[in-house]
Structures are given as C-alpha cells and as structure tokens.
C-alpha cells in the first residue's frame, strides 16, 4: 500500500483513481500530476515502483494538499467570519453560503428535521389540572 503525503492509497485502484484519495487532488489535477511524473494512469497502485512513487511525490510539491490546504480553507472561513461578511455569518450559523433556498432542502447543512408546532387544545386541557400549583 503506497503512502503519499501521509495517506495510505488503496492497492487495487488504478493510479488515476487512487491519487484522488488525497485531499485537494481531483480527477483533473491527477491528470496533470501523472503527466508531470510521466506515469501511466492505467497502472495499478500496487504495481508502482519506489522510483515512480518518488516522482509522484516530487510532482505533488506543486499542489497544496492535505493539512496545508485544510488549514488555508479554515483560515479563509475564519477571515470571513471575523470581518462580519454575510458569507461569514452563514458559515457561523451552519447555513448554505451561496444563495441556496432554505425553506425546503438544505438538509446537508441544516441537519435532520426538527418539527416545531403548537400544542392542541385537548392536550392542554388534560395537562392543566395535573400541573396546577398546590397550596
């Protein structure tokens, strides 16, 4: 199992798919990375030699990946919150930041539904005598 940038990459995947397990590397960046390292994308991760892995690591230095990228994204969000921008306030509240509607949908940002409603008259009438203050 090759280890690149502190991440164990799966053995059985093709190189062009296996490298997408790195945070910050998608399909388009993988293509550029493999061209730069002069490696065939159809080759399996387990079949890569040490020399090829070193070439991939060398080519990866041009990209911001894993911890550095995560830190930069967090700093950008914190900056938006600190300056009091609208986007920053949406991040703080855990709501969509790019103008999506929230009356319906937005479940991935807002979480599981919590139904909010009123108590019916019959329920209030049955509870009232039990909850009366004792003198």
Walk me through what this model shows.
This protein has 135 residues and is an all-alpha fold. It folds into 2 domains: 3-60, Helicase, Ruva Protein, domain 3 (Orthogonal Bundle), CATH 1.10.8; 67-135, 30s ribosomal protein s13, domain 2 (Irregular). It contains 7 helices and 2 strands. A two-stranded antiparallel sheet has the order 1-2. β1 and β2 form a beta hairpin. α2 (27-37) packs across α3 (50-60). The radius of gyration is 26 Å and the shape is elongated. The model has no long low-confidence stretch (mean pLDDT 88).
Quick overview of this protein structure:
The chain is 46% helix and 3% strand. It has helices at 15-18, 27-37, 50-60, 66-82, 86-93, 107-110, 121-127, and strands spanning 3-4, 7-8.
The CATH topology of the largest domain turns out to be 30s ribosomal protein s13, domain 2
| CATH evolutionary superfamily of the largest domain | Ribosomal protein S13/S18, C-terminal domain
The percent range for strand residues is under 5%
The Cα radius of gyration reads 26 Å
What is the CATH top level name of the largest domain? Few Secondary Structures
Biggest sheet details:
2 strands, antiparallel
Q: What is the helical fraction, as a range of percent? A: 40-55%
Strand order within the widest beta sheet: 1-2
Global mean pLDDT: 88
